[in-house]
Design a protein that fits this description.
By secondary structure, this protein is α+β, with helices and mostly antiparallel strands. The protein is built from one helix and nine strands.
């Protein structure tokens, strides 16, 4: 019976952590990062960043392409960051779909 209570307590604690509200500077939880992660303040003023699908970003010789705007962010551009959860995150001015890139979080190759 003590094991059962400990298991319930652990599960309850996990649910509380997972159900906590996400602040404006935090990425949503994913399988790789079940508690989410925080966007650097240099990338996000609270409304600028969000997770985007693989289809929103493509690659060509010059760099990453933001498909919605056509903007190309060079592979070695300082705005390109490693994505800690293995999915793309795009930070754009005011979070608008038609504005310029502040930061682009890119999953490592083969993630």
């Amino acid at each position: 019976m003590p094991f059962h209570r400990a298991s319930l307590a652990g599960m309850s604690f996990a649910l509380i952590l997972l159900s906590r509200p996400v602040s404006a500077h935090e990425a949503l939880p994913t399988t790789a990062k079940p508690l989410g992660w925080s966007y650097p303040h240099s990338c996000c003023s609270g409304i600028d960043c969000r997770q985007v699908s693989d289809k929103a970003i493509s690659e060509r010789l010059e760099g990453y392409v933001i498909n919605g705007t056509g903007e190309v962010v060079a592979y070695r551009d300082g705005r390109v960051k490693n994505s800690p959860d293995g999915v793309y995150h795009w930070c754009s001015v005011a979070g608008a779909d038609d504005s310029r890139t502040i930061c682009l979080f890119v999953p490592p190759k083969g993630y």
